[in-house]
Amino acid sequence: MTAQPSKPDAALPPTVRALGWTSFLTDLSSEAIYPLLPAFVIRELGGNSLTVGMIDGMAHAVAAVVRLPSGALSDAVGRRPLVLVGYGISAVVRPLMCFVATPLAALFVRAADRFGKGIRSAPRDSLVADLVEPSMRGRAFGHIRAMDHAGAALGPLVAMLFLLAFPGRERTLFLVAIVPGLLTLAVIWKYVRDPPQRTPIAPRTALSPSLGLHNWTLLGSVGIWAMGASSEQFLLMRAAELGTPPAFIPLVWLACSLAKSGSAAVSGRLIDRWHPRTALAAGWLMFAAAYGGLALSAHLAAALPLVALVGVAYGLSEPAERSLVAMVAPEGRHGSAFGWYALVQGMMALPASFLAGWLWQQGPRGPQAALAVTAILSALACGVLVASGRAHTPKAAPDH
């Protein structure tokens, strides 16, 4: 398979642009809370680094389990209803973090928030794939991810300014996060529509795992990468260990999110010009280099640029992953393909976060070991991805 040439002057459909704004608003709400959770769980709720990893890993696992049936169902009944329900659950549940008193309660709120994400993610990505030509998928997914990370960049900045003005009022901030969540629902209700020409498929066909060899080998490499991609909370913990003051931890998240948003905004056309597999391999190699550097670095001045490099790697690899999933999916089965992709990636989140949390506590060298494991598994996933691509490339017929 070869990527089709891009159409640089073609406009993205209005629904794709609206989905970009829903991603922006949702991440503005979510990321005003997310960077504060490690300190909140440890200081206010009596948890530790393993608790932080378990909360995040369990939450991602919940989202992963839901994504497969949600994606398959969207192939049968349409994308918009599930997108609306998923965003709605998160918008209502997320502010409840202001009421939690134990790590278990924080786990329930975080898991419910991610449950909503699990319902909406595969239908949303499938809707993008339905609405744009294959030659524009990198650009479309790049736009979604850029807006997503722009919201993730603004969220911590809002959190920092709020806490500078109202020190110690994290719970109030958690409650205020309902406002962008409700705006998200308004955008979906008014602007997001299913394509009228899409033909639904039978539910039994939608749930079938028969997606082809290309899809399953891609999922194998995604699984290896995801096993190493532990919670990004550990990046914040590493920055704190190397001397970042607590009040400025949200700025570290801001820098990482800006790197994600900026690289995602420019990588889409590159992905459409290259094959998505090539772009994804480059992103995973960059990821391995950044985490390897963080494992070796002992100084904040060296670590902070590497955290930004992690953001650049995400900005390149995330739209490339989605473009490649859409490319290898059978006709009419985008929802199922994105569901399986999200299931594999999400189910690895729990063991990945558990492994990183356990390694982190194994003495003075624990953090370096956790970061090094991420680097090694990212490089291995890249090798599997490249090898599987070569294995699936038809050989040229010999000349006679």
Explain how this protein is built.
Helix content is 76%, strand content 0%. The protein has a single domain (14-192, 211-392), classed as MFS general substrate transporter like domains (Growth Hormone, Chain: A, Up-down Bundle), CATH 1.20.1250. The chain has 400 residues and is mainly α. It has 17 helices and no strands. The protein is globular, with a radius of gyration of 20 Å. It has helices at residues 14-31, 37-44, 49-77, 80-93, 103-131, 137-165, 170-176, 178-191, 203-207, 213-228, 233-241, 249-273, 276-296, 300-328, 334-347, 349-360, 366-392.
Give the proportion of residues in helices. over 70%
Q: Distance between the terminal alpha carbons, to the nearest Å?
A: 25 Å
**Domains counted in the coordinates: how many?**
1
CATH topological fold name: Growth Hormone, Chain: A
Mean pLDDT: 82
Number of helices: 17
Largest sheet: none
CATH superfamily, by name, is MFS general substrate transporter like domains
Structural class: mainly alpha
Q: What's the quick description here?
A:
With 400 residues, this protein is an all-alpha fold. It has helices at residues 14-31, 37-44, 49-77, 80-93, 103-131, 137-165, 170-176, 178-191, 203-207, 213-228, 233-241, 249-273, 276-296, 300-328, 334-347, 349-360, 366-392.
